[in-house]
Amino acid sequence: MAEPLLRVKDLVRRFGGILATDHVTLDVAQGELHAIIGPNGAGKTTLISQLTGHLAPHAGSISVAGRDITHLPAYRRSALGLARSFQITSLLLDFTAADNVALAAQAHHGHSFRFWADARKEKGLRDAAQAALQRVGLGDRANVLVSRLSHGEQRELELAVALATKPQLLLLDEPMAGLGVTESARMVKLLQELRKEVTIVLVEHDMEAVFALADRITVLVYGRVIASGAPSDIRQNEEVKRAYLGDQHVVVRHD
Amino acid sequence: MKISLNVRNAVSALVVAGLVLLPLYSQLTGNIFILTLFTRIVILALAAASLNLIMGYGGMMSFGHAAYLGIGGYAVGILAQEGVGSGFLQFPVALAASALYALVIGALSLRTRGVYFIMITLAFAQMAYYVASGLARYGGDDGLTIYKRSDFLGLINLGNRVQFYYLCLACLLGVIFLIWRTVNSRFGMVVQGLRSNEQRMQAIGFPAKRYQLVCFVIAGTLCGLAGALLANNTDFVSPAVMYWTRSGDLMVMVILGGMGSLFGPVIGAVVYLLLEEFLSQITEYWALIMGPLLLLVVLFGRGGIMGMLGRFSRG
Amino acid sequence: MLLVVEQILNGLQFGLLLFLLAAGLTLVFGIMDLVNLAHGSLYMMGAYFAATFVAWTGSFLLGIVLALGASLLLGIVLEFVVLRHLYGRDHLDHVLATFGLILFFNEAVRWIWGPAGLALSLPPWLTVPVQIIPGIQYPAYRLAIIVVALAVALLLYLGVMRTRVGMLIRAGASNREMIGALGINIKLLYTLVFGLGAALAGLAGLMQAPILTVQIGMGENILILAFVVIVIGGIGSIRGAFLAAILVGLIDTLGRAFLPNLLRQVLSGAAASTAAPALSSMLIYLLMAIVLVLRPEGLFPATRR
After folding, report:
1. Does A153 contact chain B (CB < 8 Å)?
2. DSSP conformation class of C300
3. B203 and A91: CB-CB below 8 Å?
């Protein structure tokens, strides 16, 4: 059995008296698309934030490709091939879509202590940006200010920015949040293509998408892993059903 | 280099043209005062431009920028007092001292954010003020007179008002040019991105503090240049030039002109200082008007003067 | 020995005054998220009010009480007319607007009271030295300041920790929307909190008035020290502000009193006289720098990560 790309062991994170991450252990194999689901408040975003380095765990360990990254700052993890999309859209609002993606490419394309040449004219960065935008379907919206893009387009841009850093592990936090039916379908199709090139950890509420895409699913409730395995197993798991029956936050149709 | 034709650029061009032609006007009308006034305005515009780099483009609200005016000035003053009159030594020392101070203060202050950053930069600048006040050998509270302006071996005579004015103007325009190149470069993109969304920038792989510190040092160094020029202009340097209200003045110039626009600080400096001059002619209590005026600018003047002249994208 | 005790008490007294200022700042910042640079002006106004009212009424106590009331009133008016328009805005807007207020206040004071500053003399019963420990005497007035400031600190603590209003204040600090949703009149709460902050600043100013000269710009110097106290003490923490203020007060006072002598024993006379004043003034900032390096969130922050 090959070394998992991402290994999380006994991760713990508290907020005051609340155990937001309760001894979470999970493995993600290379090339896998691993979904993390759970009712609201389960601590999914907290978990992602610890994986990317925006939040420090109080105990436990995280390793990527065998290397312990538990205490590595966020920007260093990006260099190791981790990329993230944010649940609440986090983009550079007063820049264009192309600028956002180009900056992501710039971070992984040589150093940035260059003070003279116009960065917007760097062909390498511009081309990489255009390619990433094209990939997510935003090719013709490259020069639009992010604040002017629709919500759906911004979610797609989040993905493009993550892709531009050429990650080996993609952590997507509800990429389909707030998307309409067509946009969701497009996103699912895109993820189907992407999974062939990059390992993906997907946090999502959209159950149709999750069961269509995931190789394996982990279910988080109140910070604890209550089940982890193949989609078919999860579907039949009693505990999982109980966790969801009470909280019907699962929205399957968007209008 | 594409320069679009719009109101903003037209106004900027007019202001620059006005500044270039000013000595001519001064000669023709025999009005010396306006030349000395505008020399001071040009120097402070340089200081404001350097502050705009970290505030407008970098999002770092430093309330201690006037410290560099003092450091640059005292570098010139102290060296002059100790017998080193050469500008070729004084100016580099002024720049180096400012850079060093910015490095230390920046490294400490950038450990915090937001209002704490403002408070800390303010506190450190005031510390510089107190230290200078305590330097009895160099005048302390009373300040230090500079008997001879920086000597540039006859290349340029700082004692000649017109030559000195053009030196200052050249420095201002040079600095603006450097800032223009910097904010559009890779480095500038990172700094601007950090202003816009630091979390996002960290996520894609940029260590925030490193870039912000470098930006901070650059801005401090440029302001040190303004300090050295200012000391020559007044033939005098005292702790008062670093008093925290001076930092406030610089901030106002930047915001009034329009943060994050290239010529905003120049326009802000011109307007603010001319207004101050004008109001103080009318009444001894000009600050009574200036204070509420500032308030109104904040409450209603989004984006400063440049902002009112039309929407602009940064850089 | 006598000198050391006296200086320690002076340091304590200074620290407590700093606390009054810092507490007001922290409250206003914590609850309304408002950065108020003009806090120092309120301190100055307290002093000017005191000097004026004492002269008018001829009675020290009456003058003081009136001055306190006037400070409170001024704070409320200021909040109502100007500051409430700043809520929710960028901190930079706050900085700029209140900077404008400082200019205005300084100039208004110069216009009304003239540039020379005022003096406030103590009534005889407050100038007598009091024997606190056998053999050690301390001016009654300074002792009174310590007592009053400690009492206010205690009241503040009890008020914030034990009363319903205090609970609202603490809740407001962490969740503004919820407070509004509870049907509490948020505007009134804010006005009162600001008034309280202004009263604290005014109290500090009027207590300090007989000791230092009452002059224009006195607010700014001490405001920056209050900032230093907040940074050292910790984010959003009144307890931190208290401890830090005492610390800062002691270090500043003791440093200024004893550092020159200490230096003279180590360095030559000339070097010591040059370095001493500069170094003494730098002490507080050095402390702040050290805190920033070791614990950027302050020594006693309200929340621990």
Report:
1. no
2. S
3. no
What ranges in C59-135 are assigned the alpha helix state H? Answer: 60-81, 91-113, 124-127
Nearest by CB to residue B251, choosing from C96, C279, C289, is C96
In B, minimum Cα distance to C100 occurs at: B291
* Predicted TM-score of the model (pTM): 0.87
Please state which of the ranges B90-104, B299-313, C229-243 shows the lowest mean pLDDT. B299-313
Residues written for chain A:
255
Q: Does A54 touch chain B (CB under 8 A)?
A: yes
Asked if the Cβ–Cβ distance from A78 to B203 is below 8 Å, we say: yes
Q: Can you list the alpha helix ranges (DSSP code H) found in chain A?
A: 44-52, 74-79, 97-107, 123-136, 151-164, 181-194, 207-213, 231-236, 238-246
* Residue A227 CA neighbour count, 13 Å, CB half: 21
Tell me the count of B-C CB pairs closer than 8 A: 126
pLDDT tens-digit profile of C192-242? 889 999 999 999 999 988 888 788 888 888 888 898 898 888 766 788 889
Tokens 């009456």 belong to: C62
Run of H or E residues at A56: none
Position A243 in a domain = yes
Measured from the Cβ of residue B191, the count of other Cβ atoms closer than 10 Å reads: 29
Q: Name the residue in chain B with its Cα closest to that of A165.
A: B204
Q: Of the candidates B47, B35, B55, B13, which has an alpha carbon nearest to the alpha carbon of residue B215?
A: B55
C-alpha dihedral (A14, A15, A18, A22), degrees to nearest 10: -30
Q: Which domain holds residue A122?
A: 94-166
Partner-chain residue, chosen from B181, B189, B206, that has the shortest CB–CB distance to A75 = B206
Per-residue pLDDT tens for A211-244?
A: 889 999 999 888 889 888 898 888 888 888 877 7
Task: Inspect the interface and report whether the beta carbons of B184 and A107 lie closer than 8 Å.
Answer: no
Residues of B in contact with A45 (CB under 8 A): none
Cross-chain Cβ contact C97/B298 below 8 Å: yes
C5-123+138-294: CATH topology is ABC transporter involved in vitamin B12 uptake, BtuC (1.10.3470)
- Do A133 and A194 sit in the same domain of this protein? no
Q: What is the pLDDT of residue C131?
A: 76
Backbone angles phi, psi at C128, to 5 degrees: -70, 145
ipTM over 0.90: no
Touching subunits for chain C (3+ Cβ pairs under 8 A): B
